[in-house]
Amino acid sequence: MRASGSTLGVPILLALPARSCGLTETAHLLDHLADESAGQCGPCRFGLAAIALDLREIAHVTPGAQAAASRLVRRLDAIAGRGACAHPDGAIRLARSALRVFRRDLDDHLRGLPCRGATAPPLFPLPGRAR
Q1: Which fold is adopted by the domain 21-114?
Q2: What is the mean pLDDT of residues 59-87?
């Protein structure tokens, strides 16, 4: 499985309607993962919220989206394997999967062409978060 880029773990597959933005939805999920961490080590305490923010800046085509994309790649590499538990690694896998699966959308957003769903409210309800 490792050779193909997969791992054993909790498999989750979420189907998105065509009107949704996969980058925005992933940032929403990463925010939740950051909130749910114990905050006991640097990768959880500082890294998870930072990668969610970077992805949200890209999805919303902020003036700093290009810089956020560069930071995001560096942060994913820096955080991977460094947490006291596997929580940050799961978040990193989610972010990397989104960057791979939504590559065309990512490229469009970085060119200043966000998809229709980039500013829509989050699709997936999460405990403690407004939709």
Answers
A1: de novo design (two linked rop proteins) (1.20.1440)
A2: 92
